[in-house]
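yo

u said u wanted the structure for the complex thing, so here. seqs first:
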Amino acid sequence: MPRLNDQVRELLQEYADLINITGGDAFRARAYEKAARAVGEYPEDVAGLDAKGLQQIPGVGKSTAEKVAEFLATGRIPALEELRAKIPSGVREMTAVPGVGPKRALALHRDLGISSVDELAEAIRADKLSGLAGFGERSGEKILHGIELLRQSGGRTLLDAATELAEQLVAALSAVPGCTRCAYAGSLRRMRETVGDVDVLATAEDSAPLMAALTELPYVAEVIGSGPTKTSIRTDQGVQVDLRVVPEEDWGAALVYFTGSKAHNIKLRTMAVRAGLKLSEYGLFEVDGGAKVVSATEDEVYAALGLPWIPPTLREDRGEIEAALNDELPVLVQESDLRGDLHTHTDLTDGLATLTEMVDTAAARGYSYYAVTDHAPDLVMQRMTDEKMLAQREQLRELAGRHKKLRLLHGTELNIGPDGGVDWPPEFLAGFDVCVASVHSHFNLDRAAQTRRLIRACENPYVHVIGHLTTRRIGRRGPIDVDLDAVFAAAARTGTAIEVNSSPQRLDLRDEDVLRAKRHGVRFTIDSDAHATGQLAYPRYGIGTAQRGWLTAEDVVNTWTWQRLKHFLRKDALH
DNA sequence: GCCGTTTTCGGCCCGACTGTTTTCAGTCG
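structre next:
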């Protein structure tokens, strides 16, 4: 079940979307969007707030507070239900298709009776859109491509939502009497960027109470199937969960089997066969006679195959078994290795929290250094000015003594222009402690131009970090077309770090590209790109991507001490 | 609908891109 704030966020966002689709006042819709975001990121639980308390949330006024209070009291918002009655839910879902906004969704519904993404795809294939005002020859093609993009990740759940769900499930099932072990496995344990379903494994003498506990959870929408060893449900958020219960003595073999990946397991099984053994989810057995060798722990299973334990994030058959055989497994970077965050925002631009709130939260995370990197002026909508930036720097300097162990760095997130230039001239850039530079526009340049602009950004002596290099948004927007190897070579040559952006919507660079970049000798940062205090915890997801890219703490500059990082940030002095 | 060293009305993140137009609407960041 999502946090109550998240439920309210979703309802307010739905209300805003429906206002947009029905052609209501755009500013009113925007006000609800803003309120939705503010509630979602509000650190306190809204459950304990009354209408007055709700109005303390910035962006929530009288009208929104009343609606939320009504929801908290009755579970319903009549104003929302009225709008829902006018517009089928599929019409709103169509606006999730890249290229389809509220106006087009309404036109498609009103003029062609289309009420779902599936019907939309069908109508395009049947050439029913031509002739509709505002839709030309290329529209259908573009929308179909958008639907394709949506479906590629459609049915898959982002890492943060899946992790939160899995942690709740494990907590609930661990509390069931008779449950001796419980953990999540599958691609979530390997920390893939999206997961198709959530696999939970548990041990108990009697599986029935665990199966019953799962099916009775309040957020179960459907029981897909239930037997003595396996139960599958679907949550009200549409995520499938498979629970498997095994005897405690088989825990290790089952955990290996259900963690995967399939390719990793096939390789393990092949190794077993060569040793006269057979590996399954029930254990490692001798082929002759069928005696069980081991199955109680993962350590034992790997050891019996002549291997050290292999971290789940490496189990993709990308050379980890060979490395393990040669005793060359990397010592993977851990979240606890991170000493700071070098890419964060405040409400000076598009963040939700104040500078002080962000700094306090960073201090509570135990960091030794922390950079504020609000947007630079070329991202016009953020309305940055030199004066605002300098005033923030002053404010940050005044906070310097607030947390004794936390060094505050003043930075910015620059915009890499189409030609590779950035927002400010060298003399202004020199005033920052750290500069992240990212692509925020011109996503459709050809490969040569994209490559050129990124290399030029690396060559800028004031650019320390390239942020979210490919600019992809999972399930929403593909990566830009760029020669990554050429950019990695430039980053390595110029001493420019490449970011592993930890936002679950981005996770950019992707794991396999991290691996490639590492081979070029690139250094990395693992940053939150936080726009709210709660998002400062995002590096837990970026760490997964970094581990899947085989990174060690040595590869990641924000695990370094300040003394060492300071040297790295003096890039201009090194050349 | 929200908000105020623009303060109770009148603004509100602005501009580029795309495909459709022939002067612009819709979408997006």
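The two ends of chain A are 54 Å apart (CA to CA). The mean pLDDT of chain A is 90.
cya
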